[in-house]
Amino acid sequence: MKEKIVNGMQIFAKAIIFPVLFLPIVGIIIALSSILSNPAIVGGNQFLINLGNFISSGLWPIMNNLGIIFCVGIAMGMAKEKKAEAALLGLFSFLVYLGANNQWLNITGRLVKYKVPSDLYGTGQTVILGFQVVDMGVFLGLILGVIVAVFHNKYCNKEFKGALSFYGNTKFAFIVLVPVLLILSILFSYVWPVIAIGIKALTNFINVAGYFGVFVYGFLNRVLIPTGLHHLIWTPFSYSNIGGELMVNGKTYFGAYNIFLAQLADPSIQVFDISAKYLQYGMVKMFGLVGVALAFYKTAKPKNKEKVKALLVPATVTSVLVGITEPLEFTFLFVAPVLWFVHSALDGIFEVILVALGGRTYAAGGLIDFLAYNLPAGIGRTKWPIFIAVGAVQLVVYYFVFKFLIKKFNFKTPGREEDKVKLYSKKDYKNKKSKNLEDKNTLDIASLIVDGLGGPKNIETVNNCFSRLRVKVIDTEKVDEESLKDTGSSGVIKNGENIQVIYGPKVSNIRNKVDKYLNKIDQEE
Description:
Elements: H1 2-20, H2 23-36, H3 39-42, H4 46-64, H5 66-78, H6 83-107, E1 125-128, E2 131-134, H7 138-155, H8 170-209, H9 211-223, H10 231-239, E3 245-248, E4 251-254, H11 256-264, H12 283-299, H13 305-322, H14 326-329, H15 337-356, H16 367-377, H17 379-382, H18 384-409, H19 426-439, H20 445-452, E5 459-464, E6 468-473, H21 481-485, E7 491-495, E8 498-502, H22 507-524
Antiparallel strand pairs: 1-2, 3-4, 5-6, 6-8, 7-8
Helix pairs in contact: 1-5, 2-4, 2-16, 5-6, 5-7, 6-7, 6-8, 7-8, 8-9, 9-15, 12-13, 12-18, 15-18, 20-22
């Protein structure tokens, strides 16, 4: 049972990242457009102000309709095959639910009267795509997306004979889903208000917990990275009312990230809302891990320092610039798990310090995000100099703590191995790859990865997140971790049938190559 639960969480965490991958792009464009629409920056230039408002208006419908985005994205992400049809099924299902839920509220006389949508704030109802329904926030999309994926995977290949053949496959999955959606539209109208009370209580508890709550949030957000379940921590805080709710310009925004973006577009707000305390996990990416890298270099054996530098520099730059930390973090996760626990605890502590000193910044994507989001907002609203000051202290603390622990317990971090540095530099990787290619003739990087995963017939699904190739395999015993590391991976994680291969920012390119290679094999067969 435990393995099934963990496996299910892994599949969900893998699927939820599908739509999340696009949201940082949306956020950055909105943040940059706020520069143009801010009179304090462009003065009275009405053309630039209108242009900024025009750009942001084109992007905000995405952030304001995350329910349907998550529904479609999760349905597609969890689908084992026919992903495009699963996405369309998700869209149909979301619309069916909206119409049915609205009509049930109407039939039972429970529709709250309003003049403008903002009047519904606090009533438990909202307007989505023109339908007045029970307000479930992004949870509606999360729940429906999972349900659609389950029914799609079960019935998408169901076939009938004769005249009924038209109603088979994914169309049959939709037929089965319709009564389920109708029942859910009724059920949620009674059950969700009770659940909403529980969510509100959880939010209140976290807020009452104060700095301890921030520490726990920061600690879990970091310590769960090896499992891939950290998405289940920061996602609800960023996009649902668990992370706070605030009315800006007559419209209510839910989730720390959405609230941050809404405040960017309103120059009248002097200091950003406290909900930004859930957005401070970017500091360690720009500062703390730099201290870790310096400690690794300092404690490496003299003969290995150049090789360690070749390993650490690109990994550190990746962390600082774009906030992808796994290539650096996985250099010590497996050889010294104690350091990982210390790393997670320190991150939580420094997030508390930053929040206590008034930090309201956002830099989840590293330096690029820091510049795009915080500079346009101004010092007064985000207090970003505090972020830099605390980050500088964090860098120093990380350096000395890691250096002390590595020497005290003789951890075999990069450059301290008895025989050689086990993690390869870029040059070593190219040489290794060339040798493999010579030995295997026409095989390319995708074929090496597929072989390392046990071959094409051992692979059930292939996806990716920001930095990891996420694969579900049939037989984990066939997975060759060393072969996967030889393809440039900085680590391999096994969670039941779910395999995560860490590649960093290049993972999207690698996933495309693997997909093309597998499609080619399918066509040949």
